[in-house]
Amino acid sequence: MDKSQDYVIEMLNITKVFPGIKANDNITLQLRRGEIHALLGENGAGKSTLMSVLFGLYQPEEGVIKKNGEIVKINDPNDATALNIGMVHQHFKLIEVFTVLDNIILGAETTKMGFLQKKEARKKVEELSKRYGLNVDLDAKVEDITVGMQQRVEILKMLYRDNEILIFDEPTAVLTPQEIDELMEIMRGFAKEGKSILFITHKLNEIMAVADRVSVLRKGKYIGTVDVANTTKQELSNMMVGRPVQLQVQKDPAQPKEVILDVKDFTVPSRLHHNDAVKHVSFQARAGEIVCIAGIDGNGQSELIYGLTGLEKSSSGTVTLCGEDITKASIRTRLGNLSHIPEDRHKHGLVLDFTLEQNLALQRFREKGFQHFGFINNGNVRQYAQRLIDQFDVRSGQGPVTTARSMSGGNQQKAIIARELDRDKPLIVAVQPTRGLDVGAIEYIHNQLVNERDEGKAVLLVSLELDEVMSLSDRILVMYEGEIVGELDPKQTTVQELGLYMAGAKRQGGMSHE
Amino acid sequence: MNKSPLLQRAGTQKLIASVLSIVIGLFFGSILVLIVGLATSDIGAKGAWDGIRLIFIGLFSKSRDASGNLVFGMNTTNVGNMLFRATPLIMTGLSVAISQKTGLFNIGAPGQYLMGTMATLMIALSIPSTSVPPFLIWILAFLGGCIAGALWGAIPGMLKAFLNINEVIACIMTNWIAANLVTWLFDIASFSTIKGSFYCQTKWKIADGTFKNLIENTKSGYVYKTTWNNVATPKLGLDKVFPGSQVNAGILIAILIAIVVFIIINKTTFGFQLKACGSNRHAARYAGIKDRANIIYSMAIAGALAAAGAALYYLSGNTEFNWHTDQTLPAIGFNGIPVALLAVNNPVGVIFSGTFMAMLNIIGTQLTKFTAYNEYITDVIIAAIVYLSAFSLVIRSLISGRKKKVAVVNDANAEKNPVTPTEAKTEKGGAQA
Questions:
Q1: Could you tell me which chain A residue has the CA closest to the CA of B287?
Q2: Rounded distance, CA B130 to CA B147, Å?
Q3: Domain map of chain A by residue range?
Q4: A199-238 pLDDT tens trace
Q5: Which residues in chain B are contacts of A55 at CB distance < 8 A?
Q6: Can you tell me the distance from the alpha carbon of B93 to that of B98, in angstroms, rounded to the nearest whole number?
Q7: How far from B1 is each of A346, A383, A388, B8, B414, CA to CA, in Å?
Q8: The domain boundary residue, chosen from B286, B318, B345
Q9: Which tens digits make up the pLDDT trace of A311-366?
Q10: How far is B293 from chain A (nearest CA, A)?
Q11: Which CATH architecture has domain A246-337+426-514?
């Protein structure tokens, strides 16, 4: 009995069923007072569902929630707030045109005779932000501040409501490395103050850095809870994925052959500014190598890929693909020789309201076998989709007829990768192919790309993750302000040196035209 | 994949939701009739009872007998007229539905309908039937109407595709441009002052002897009928099936077109492209589909369908086009919106919802004929139904919500019988972490 008093929140034997899927199967999670408790699991493991249950967004079919040892019923987020449970969602819930202060007090306004008492609110928020080192400009509009700042606003929202149990849903996915360090520091501060933190993530480094205990979920099932002090990254990833995972990419040295992609003096105008986003860039990609475009986000990588794949028009230079000049070719012509794993899977990669099978046939529906005199052969499309689903292990509630929107992010990405790699084209353009994915999926995608390379494809990779750049690529091109400022060999360079090129502090002479 | 149980399919739920909207709408109308009847001394309870019966089975009302009671039974005139009036409604309904399927909202059906009316009438009346066989004139007039509508529909399509101007705004503006343009083109005075327009005028003279319909000039405008030039849609024996009505083969053509549209949308690569562009223009572009062209195609087809409705209506031979100098937008164009809404944008469903709307129309005339009520009661019913069908998503989630509770009870079945995708979608963006 005394033991259970230690726990501020207990979720006991929670089961939540969705059509076609058991999202949570008999899961138990116990949060101690003043601890940072990580919740680890792959995409689709049921982490978000479990948190939504705690937050009153879903009602579990089985199981109970206890607060301080007493059973509570959480019917909606208002109940959760009343129990001092606060949550920072992965996608922030802020009103962009409101000021920071207005966002913080929204829904918990102090009023006198129906009039807002902003002065008191401002005082309280200022105190809080001083106490926890959460610096924000209270009068700035949310749309004008950085993502890191917006997260602080979300955190202040929880503090303003005197929440004792703080849930962070994948908080680091949108942050820069510095911002991540700062967030970790803030979280430690909260724990010291006696607040309890639930930290949802699939990044092992962060768990090792900040958490006290970690609970692991896999495919909706509870695997176990361990003390972070007594475990290793390898052990955690094995628990999460259910089998030993290689955290390092295994590959043989590259054997580059003929030139597949030849880009000369390539310029792409920017949509946002008068400036060019890509300035007179020249490079080549050969069969059998992985060429990585590295750089800090927003240095022209996206526009370079848009230009190469035809989504944007170029203003100078030539692009030769497999010996054919495609500088002015249509997107459809280009797709004849390249596979494109796009940066934004919701904007470009998928038609979210289409079914999985329609998405898998998105480029191929005009091909023979998929259509006959303009009529789509649904049987063949179904068969093809089923083959890809089996081969690439794309998981979904209802197989080929699942709506893409209802699939988890990792499986959406797998579907895109299945579609693109199966088209079997000499050039693979992969833009941040592992963004937001868990270790199991990342390992899988890395292995796929290495396999494609070994089969003689040219792979053009754009990545913002330094680990990925260093471990996956055979050749690194660093982009800074629209130019390629350096070409590096990952075996002979260090992360530090790469960082200097990315920040523009260093450049190789003659790499690119001014 | 096994098919899910009938009640859990998305299609079934949509159908139930629409039928529920209709039923509730009709009851709402009955209550209105009751209130109006009891509050008006010359109607009373008996009159109200007649009105309520007419609302539900007015299509089969025949007459009043000697003692003043309503007589019900098969009324071929009513059924035939219902089919006749359904024809243009089905076409404008299809026009709205196809644009909705492709992610656009075609509120320009009235303008496209007017342009179709104009082109159809001018072609039907300006080619002399003495030298060209009438059926050929009919085909030319029909196609000409469709092309005029397609071109008119393509304008907001192009504005959307190239300049990203909202098609609703562009459609509303092209509607009024069409109204004024048609007024101007039919205005004989302005016609004859333009150089070269004499060609058209002389052709008209061949057709009926005079461009201006002086015979019926007693009205404020001018009236045109294609029968002056012996052009009319064949009856194909339908007038024998439904004696005393205006029905003709137009309804068959409308049904045929609806089925063709259904096949194009659901079975062809072209439909796949249109839907892909409608759902996510960026992803379609990424996949090598010409997004701009498809937006224009979609609007052009929508325009052609609305105009085809006008062509079928005015080529029937029974209808007159009343041209006024203060040209207004035809209500039949706007009525395509509720027709499509009620059919949940399903082209085959449009056949039934269009027919149902036409039936309400007939009921309106029966109310006027047999009771002291007027036909505007049915407008209120239509309004109520439209209002409710806008809530059909809510109704659908209520239906599936009940199913879900059942599924939870027998847990094992829930795994075996996946519920429809719509349900997963209403679950705040997906079940998985």
A1: A363
A2: 25
A3: 2-241, 246-337+426-514, 350-424
A4: 888 778 888 889 999 999 988 889 999 999 999 888 888 8
A5: none
A6: 9
A7: 26, 12, 16, 15, 15
A8: B345
A9: 988 999 999 999 889 998 999 999 999 999 998 888 899 998 899 999 999 988 88
A10: 13
A11: 3-Layer(aba) Sandwich (3.40)
On chain B, the residues whose CB falls within 8 A of the CB of A348 are 282-283, 285-286
User: How far is Cα B51 from Cα B40, in angstroms, rounded to an integer?
Assistant: 13
Query: A71 pairs with which residues across the strands?
Result: A66
A–B interface: beta-carbon pairs under 8 A = 139
Cα of B14 to nearest chain A Cα, Å: 17
Q: One fold for both A2-241 and A246-337+426-514?
A: yes
Domain count, chain B: 2
Chain A residues lying within 8 Å of B275, measured CB to CB: 354
Q: Do A375 and B268 touch (CB under 8 A)?
A: yes
Q: Which domain holds residue B23?
A: 1-74+350-433
CB-hemisphere CA count at 13 Å for A38?
A: 27
Helix, strand or coil for residue B14? Answer: helix
Given an 8 Å threshold on Cβ–Cβ distance, is A365 in contact with B269?
A: yes
**Whether A406 and B407 lie within 8 Å, measured CB to CB:** no
Residue of A351, A370, A403 best to disrupt the B interface, most CBs of B under 10 A = A351
- pTM for the model stands at 0.75
CATH 3.40.50.300 assigned to A2-241: yes
The minimal CB distance from A20 to the residues B267, B275, B418 is found for B418
Is residue B358 located within the same domain as residue B331? no
A347 contacts in chain B (CB < 8 Å): 280, 282-283
Question: What ipTM does this complex have?
Answer: 0.75
Partner-chain contact B283 A403, CB within 8 Å: no
How many alpha carbons lie under 13 Å from residue A236 in its C-beta half-sphere?
Answer: 30
pLDDT tens for A429-455 read 999 888 767 777 788 889 989 999 999
User: Tokens standing for B52?
Assistant: 């309520």
Q: Among B345, B379, B413, where does a domain finish?
A: B345
Q: Output the six-digit token pair for B398.
A: 């209520």
Rg (CA), chain A: 25
Which two three-digit tokens encode residue A170? 């994948």
Q: Are B411 and B276 contained in the same domain?
A: no
| B305 and B383 inside one domain | no
Q: Are residues B162 and B27 in the same domain?
A: no
Angle at B266 between CA B260 and CA B272, to 5 degrees: 115
- Cα(A183)–Cα(A170) distance, integer angstroms: 12
High-pLDDT (> 70) share of chain A, %: 96
